[in-house]
Specification:
It is a single chain. Helices cover about 35% and strands about 20% of the residues. The protein is built from 13 helices and 15 strands. Strands 7, 8, 9, 10, 11, 12, 13, 14 and 15 form a nine-stranded parallel β-sheet that branches. Helix 11 crosses helix 12.
Length: about 400
């Protein structure tokens, strides 16, 4: 009856069909796959951004060295030699020499730089790629000529030896006494590793190199220069006339400071590198013209067995008079050969330097490490023998001027 009633009450032309409810997911299979791939991608990006492992999961080899257990100090040396490059790969090599030593090559995972570290009896470590080394390991550094200051090691006279004589570059001084000589000082080095390296490598050893105390690691660059047999000087930043608009840098010696304060700053500069034969002014037109502030600096430098080089930038400098009063080796630049940094002007200045050397027996030029300066200097130096002129380190020119 019910069915009949339904049929009677159903509008004409319409049939009711009973529907069965089915469960459906709120997303399709393609949408689920897309979400899954997105999660994987997010996880990968997260690992790349927040994981500081430069090797990216590359296998790491750990090498056990069969030596005496290292001391904490040695551990610090090894960490420093590795540049704190962790993680890094260590590759064992055969012993570098007879004895209980091993060489380990440490590869910096971020830069690929290789560093050979020699480890042997006594737990000593030395970087063999020209990196940092303790002062005792530096090429030709005499430990007797160093004393400790609040900033580090600074030069001193000891056992009758002076840094000026110990660190002077080799030269035939007997020959230099008989003929005209020229000395060239290339200054402003230590800031800018590329230009400093060019000066060190491309210029002959008889050219003296002057380093500022600034830069990431001036001591390392100075040591490289000495390894290439260059004589080196340390430039001391001093106050120019337009200070502070023209500021040489941190710890500049100032005319407004007392002697004790300037000496403290002076010692900071002296500690920045080792093995220099003398000091030179870095800027400083106002400072070098003032007797009261220059006297303590010259006196202290002379007491420490150093020479003094005046770059000739100001005619009012009192350095020569004060150095003479302390019997201190001294030289003054006759002029800057690249004041106008063009090939033609540099060549003209070098001819003028030759003339001075022949007239007076000694001439001194100063230059910067510009590529054009290095290029013209190299070309000119090759012609000196045929002109009867000898290129000498600055210390040789100082000694010849003093004896003359």
């Amino acid at each position: 009856m019910a069915e009949a009633a339904d049929e009677l009450s159903t509008p004409l032309g319409q049939n009711t069909v009973s529907k069965t409810r089915r469960f459906r997911l709120p997303f399709t299979a393609m949408q689920a796959l897309a979400v899954l791939l997105g999660l994987v991608l997010v996880g990968f990006v997260g690992v790349a951004l927040f994981n500081d492992n430069p090797l990216g999961g590359e296998p790491i080899a750990h090498v056990a060295l069969r030596n005496a257990p290292p001391s904490p100090a040695a551990d610090d040396k090894h960490a420093a030699a590795a540049g704190q490059a962790e993680p890094a790969k260590a590759i064992a090599k055969p012993p570098a020499a007879a004895g209980d030593t091993k060489t380990v090559t440490i590869i910096d995972g971020s830069s690929g730089k290789r560093q050979d570290v020699v480890v042997g009896a006594g737990d000593t470590a030395e970087k063999t790629d020209g990196g940092d080394a303790p002062a005792a390991m530096m090429s030709g550094i005499d430990q007797r000529l160093l004393e400790k200051s609040r900033y580090g090691m600074i030069p001193v006279v000891a056992d009758g030896l002076k840094p000026f004589t110990v660190y002077a570059a080799d030269a035939d001084r007997a020959k230099a006494a008989r003929m005209p000589v020229v000395a060239i000082v290339v200054e402003g080095l230590g800031v800018g590793a590329a230009k400093t390296a060019d000066a060190i490598i491309k210029l002959p050893p008889a050219v003296t190199l002057a380093f500022t105390p600034y830069g990431a690691d001036p001591g390392k660059l100075a040591e490289r220069a000495r390894t290439e047999r260059h004589e080196i000087l340390l430039q001391i930043p001093m106050e120019p006339f337009d200070y502070p608009d023209n500021d040489p840098g941190p710890q500049t010696l100032l005319t407004t400071l007392g002697a004790e304060q300037n000496l403290d700053r002076f010692y900071w500069h002296l500690s920045r590198l080792q093995g220099y034969a003398g000091i030179a002014n870095f800027m400083g037109a106002r400072f070098v013209a003032s007797d009261p502030v220059m006297q303590p600096i010259i006196r202290d430098a002379a007491k420490r067995g150093l020479g003094y080089f005046d770059d000739g930038s100001t005619p009012r400098s009192v350095a020569q008079t004060m150095a003479a009063g302390q019997s201190m080796p001294f030289a003054r630049a006759d002029f800057a050969i690249d004041a106008v940094p063009t090939s033609a002007e540099i060549d003209r200045a070098l001819v003028k330097l030759e003339t001075l050397a022949k007239e007076r027996g000694t001439a001194v030029g100063v230059a910067s490490a510009l590529p054009v300066s290095i290029d013209r200097l190299n070309a000119w130096i090759k012609t000196l023998d045929s002109k009867g002129i000898m290129l000498v380190p600055l210390t040789t020119a100082m000694l010849k001027s003093k004896s003359g």
